[in-house]
Design goal:
This protein has helices at 8-32, 40-49, 57-85, 90-113, 123-147. It contains 5 helices and no strands. Helix 1 packs across helix 3 (57-85) and helix 1 (8-32) runs antiparallel to helix 5 (123-147).
């Protein structure tokens, strides 16, 4: 069964939701295994709750819901970029969009909400953030392409 969605906002939100779920799970695993010193979930937690709490139980669930909510919002932006600029080279656009979210998070949001840990100073953590944001952009682009209704042009 193939799903086609005509609404740009819904297609983008679904893409961003699934992309951020993949990114969030991988980011949490990279933190738990010691691959990175922080995760986007930690940053999201401070945006939502204004404090650093252990990411366990209810706190983890609430943070993850907020994180995928932000991801869905950014997915809508990518869907509108596709609508406006077309879907040629969609995966390159998706990866570039993931890099844009990485740049915004690392340079503006993270220093405001997590000033005690500058992820830009740790190469390994920075590389994890970089790679997972690219994965977010690629997954989001893929889902948007798969579910978007494309009208025949003639």
């Amino acid at each position: 069964m193939e799903i086609r969605i005509r609404d740009t906002i819904v297609a983008g939100a679904l893409g961003g939701l699934l992309g951020s779920m993949v990114e969030g799970v991988l980011h949490y695993l990279s933190f738990v295994t010691g691959l990175s010193k922080s995760s986007t979930l930690h940053i999201t937690q401070r945006v939502i709750m204004h404090q650093a709490l252990p990411l366990t139980g209810l706190t983890l669930v609430a943070t993850f819901i907020g994180f995928v909510g932000f991801g869905a919002l950014f997915g809508v932006v990518l869907a509108y970029i596709f609508q406006r600029a077309g879907t040629d080279y969609a995966y390159i656009k998706g990866a570039g969009f993931g890099l844009l979210t990485y740049f915004v998070l690392n340079n503006f949001i993270a220093p405001l909400v997590q000033p005690d840990l500058d992820i830009r100073e740790d190469a390994q953590t920075n590389l994890v953030f970089f790679a997972l944001h690219v994965i977010y952009g690629l997954v989001t682009a893929h889902v948007i392409l798969r579910v978007s209704h494309r009208e025949a042009r003639g």
